[in-house]
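User: Hello! I'm new to structural biology and keep hearing that structure can be predicted from sequence alone. Could you demonstrate with Homing endonuclease LAGLIDADG domain-containing protein? Please show me the input and the output so I can see what each looks like.

Assistant: Of course. The first part below is the input, the amino acid sequence of Homing endonuclease LAGLIDADG domain-containing protein. The second part is the output, the predicted structure written as tokens.
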Amino acid sequence: MKKKPVVKHNRTTLSNQQETRKAYIAGIFDGEGTFSMTQYRQRNGYMNSRICIGVANTDRDIIKAVVDFFRKNAISYYLFVNDRRNIGRKIQYQLEITKHQNKTKFIDLIYPYLRKNRELAELFKDFCEYRQTRWEQWKKDGANGKFANKYLTAKEDKKYLMIYKKYREKADTISKTLYDFGGAKTKDDEI
């Protein structure tokens, strides 16, 4: 009786697969993702700030990979489907992470792999932790709507918004200096 040859498989450990998945998702959010902060006036007249961490794409497989990642890590999200076929365009899928604790968890998972949006991720994590702490204190003290602005102040939000705007201005300046579309040599030509 002949012995069957022993075939050794190159097995990737589960933790290694998870790290690869985190790096893949971080790459998607660095290239296609949105890290934005806006300020708006509420119905009661108070100013409020909101951050958005999301991604939009027409490739269903990419969106499915991100959704799977969110589900495996218990990150809640909204999925918007923008059907633009009637105007000759592809269907666009938009994902946005909900709740500050989910945004913080997501940033913690992908932070080591981020490149372009690393500074924004740090800022947004600080903002989410600040907001979560203030919200928990408000709930602990009785969650009276009349005193909500005592806990979530526009002044503190504005500090984060100003840092965000400075970062965006710096990013816009860099992109304007790297690319001169008037036919001059671009930074890419030097590579």
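User: So the tokens describe the shape?

Assistant: Right, they're a compact way of writing down the 3D structure. Reading them back into a model, for example: The beta strands are 33-41, 47-57, 77-82, 92-97.
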